[in-house]
Write a structure and sequence with these properties.
Length: about 230
């Protein structure tokens, strides 16, 4: 399993027979080293409707004939745009050909502003994803603040890798993300959703050092770099 971080919250997961990409914000992402046309994915997972998460999902889905997995309200909108979708609700699980997906709570808003319009559309609840693939459990928190039920996620799941936002302002910051990592009891934590814009500027190395002080393994993955399991 090869996992590539593309900046902001975009994570590509290459499995033996399938490729997934989460929150594919590439075209307008100043940190991304890849473009939408570089992505070959079977499934696209979108945590919520904001442009820096929905990103290039429709383009990638149509070109690859990929399925977008998203909160149900957002999924319906994307289906109207011609994408193949699978809608889910918070707490729901589904067994896909590549593995199991559970949609988790995220404390955040969710809306979409179609390009060239002043319309701001409600796109359902924001979410995170708990993936069980090739014998590993990966948690992508999406955009969220700290919440107590992260303890339940850690208690009920042996999480191998967690992607946690640290940008602050719109999501939890580094201090709360350390608490989240303690709640989740993940074997490894990777920070995300930082330094893409001035408002979310953070020091990921300092965050990883704070994790280490609590006995938690953290890794900074730069955009374009990968992790292998």
């Amino acid at each position: 399993m090869n996992i590539i971080f593309h900046g902001q919250s975009c994570v590509e997961i290459r499995l033996k027979e399938h490729t997934l990409i989460i929150d594919p914000f590439l075209n307008h992402n100043p940190l991304a080293t890849a473009k939408p046309e570089d992505i070959k994915a079977d499934y696209i997972l979108v945590t919520h409707g904001h442009a820096d998460h929905l990103g290039d999902s429709i383009e990638i889905a149509k070109r690859n004939e990929a399925t977008i997995i998203a909160p149900n309200d957002l999924g319906r909108y994307l289906s109207f745009q011609g994408a193949k979708t699978h809608g889910m609700g918070i707490g729901g699980e589904y067994q896909f050909p590549f593995g199991k997906v559970k949609m988790t709570l995220a404390l955040h808003d969710s809306s979409y502003n179609p390009p060239g319009t002043k319309e701001n559309m409600y796109t359902g609840m924001a979410s995170g994803f708990l993936l069980t693939v090739e014998g590993k459990t990966i948690y992508h928190a999406g955009d969220t603040g700290l919440f107590g039920d992260m303890q339940l996620l850690g208690k009920l799941n042996a999480i191998d890798l967690a992607f946690l936002p640290i940008g602050d302002n719109y999501t939890m910051g580094p201090r709360d993300a350390v608490i989240a990592a303690q709640f989740l009891q993940a074997k490894m934590v990777v920070p995300m959703h930082y330094n893409t814009f001035p408002l979310i500027k953070q020091d990921p190395t300092a965050f990883v050092e704070s994790l280490a002080a609590e006995g938690i393994k953290g890794v900074v993955v730069e955009p374009g770099q990968s992790l292998s399991f």
